[in-house]
């Protein structure tokens, strides 16, 4: 079964920008998020689209099934979503220990910048750049499914 | 956008069996059913599997997006379901006006036998065989997503 092992962090400063490759514009929404699964539609650069099923296990490892679908199907499915459309630009950053990305959110989640590192196993201790801030892997507020229902822009300032 | 136009009926007697082609064993479950969409996994004869997104519009016409997926993925996704696994054998019946099928349910929905006819347009008035019983197209209790949450076997006898 395909597993996704990733750790998530806030970003402490703009140091990552010097290393970032060209960004990819992502629009995504959830068709549903239950106790067991989240069903996501994602469109990248208006050119390619995916339907993704993720198990709802909290923490680093989640089962993930992803299928490429026609962009026109994905556009129509956005209308069947729960919550907001999540808009972000994803930047890839060179990193030895796994795939490191920085997501700069816009729209309802403007102001949020989040780094994710995808690891080959849970035992890998990645060497993290100094612009990496607090770890939020287990903080459910930062799950994209929750950012669709309760966008960053709606959080009370003192709760951030 | 792909549309599914279908009418559903109860079955009044066993007259259909004489015309039925070989049955196909279907196991299916819902990953979620929201006000806007139902997300279904279906495995046919343990040999082929589909992930299907249907809009939740009540009545004859629903948007439907269906993708073939690996059977192993579908088996794993059954564990992420809401409600029961729906088990049924689907029989195709020759019919001039559209695709006519009879579903004989087992498991939690044992006792339910339902006919569906898929039409090219809502204006087609199909010639229906005499074994066709009451129309249930708009009766939400018979939606498969509802049969997963509230199986036929759990209905009170006087509510049937």
TrEMBL record, chains A, B:
It comes from the Bacteria. Residues 2-149 form the CYTH domain. InterPro entries: CYTH-like_dom_sf, CYTH_domain, NeuTTM/CthTTM-like. Pfam families: CYTH. The active site is at 30 (proton acceptor). SMART domains: CYTH. This is CYTH domain-containing protein. It comes from Microbaculum marinisediminis.
């Amino acid at each position: 079964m395909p597993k996704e092992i990733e750790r998530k962090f806030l970003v402490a400063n703009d140091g990552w920008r010097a290393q970032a490759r060209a960004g990819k514009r992502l629009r995504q929404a959830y068709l549903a998020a239950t106790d067991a699964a989240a069903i996501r539609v994602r469109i990248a650069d208006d050119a390619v689209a995916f339907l993704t099923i993720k198990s709802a296990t909290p923490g680093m490892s989640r089962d993930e099934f992803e299928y490429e679908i026609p962009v026109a199907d994905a556009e129509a499915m956005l209308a069947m979503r729960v919550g907001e459309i999540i808009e972000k630009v994803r930047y890839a950053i060179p990193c030895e220990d796994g795939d490191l990305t920085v997501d700069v959110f816009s729209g309802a989640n403007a102001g949020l910048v989040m780094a994710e590192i995808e690891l080959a196993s849970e035992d890998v201790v990645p060497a993290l750049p100094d612009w990496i801030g607090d770890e939020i892997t287990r903080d459910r507020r930062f799950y994209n499914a929750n950012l669709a229902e309760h966008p960053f822009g709606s959080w009370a300032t003192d709760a951030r």
